[in-house]
Amino acid sequence: MNFAAPSLDHDRAQALFGQLVDEQLAPAEEQALRSHLDACADCQHELERYARTVTLVRSLERERAPAELAAQVMKRVRRRRRHLFGLQGGRFFEHVSMPAEVAVPVVLVAIAAAALIVLLLQ
Ligand SMILES: [Zn+2]
Question: Please, are residues 77 and 114 in contact by the beta-carbon 8 Å criterion?
Fold first, then answer.
């Protein structure tokens, strides 16, 4: 049986993304959100982006030795950066070198920031 789900505006719908991703929504809320999403391409897009960001951040939190991931993200960032700023930006980044003890925390913070920027630029 279909009861009329309370309709959500964009802000309200997007405010529920966190709970949706965490599967914390009550069934009625989830239904309301899903029916908004069915009809709203903007919010679908936002949810996709939100879910990707959450997934990425959580995978960073889980990874104790994210060297491989760091390399991948840096490669992406360099590509993006080159795209945005031309070759100079990419070269500059490659020439920055630091001892590993300094680089790892810096890289972790940079990855989180860069990942958000990359996602926001998409
Ligand atoms: Zn919407």
Answer: yes
CA of 36 to the centre of ligand 1 (A): 6
The single residue listed with the structure tokens 């950066």 is: 81
Same domain, 24 and 57: yes
9 with 42, same domain: the answer is: yes
pLDDT over 70 percentage in the chain: 70
pLDDT of residue 2: 42
33 C-alpha to ligand 1 centroid (Å):
9
Asked if residue 84 and residue 43 are part of one domain, the reply reads no
Where in the sequence is the domain holding 4, given as residue range(s)? 1-62
pLDDT(70) > 80: no
**CA 27 to ligand 1 centroid distance, Å:** 19
| Closest listed residue to residue 20, CA positions, set 1, 8, 34 | 34
Residue 18 contacts residue 41 (beta carbons within 8 Å): no
CA of 89 to the centre of ligand 1 (A): 36
This prediction's pTM: 0.47
How remote is the CA of residue 17 from the centroid of ligand 1, in Å?
A: 11
